[in-house]
Amino acid sequence: xxxxxxxxxxxxxxxxxxxxxxxxxxxxxxxxxxxxxxxxxxxxxxxxxxxxxxxxxxxxxxxxxxxxxxxxxxxxxxxxxxxxxxxxxxxxxxxxxxxxxxxxxxx
Length: 107
What we know:
Layout: E1 9-19, E2 25-35, H1 39-44, H2 51-55, E3 56-60, H3 74-83, H4 85-100
Antiparallel strand pairs: 1-2, 2-3
């Protein structure tokens, strides 16, 4: 029998592409850790609640320097990733893909 842990968290690869000041493309990958949030809890949240605030719990393999030049860690790293438009879009795409990719019905 298949057992479903509804309180799980898991890691998933995230592909990220950003452009520098000269317009040069830089692509890399890192790993995000997501937690599963029940659909009924997501529906009950206020309309202005951001999905990444609920599901993103960690990130590895990416360096983000702070204003002092030191690498961000923990919540500071997660906040920087969620606030960067390219990184937050990549994270949302990875989360949605991680949920839907293998669970799509075959036609």
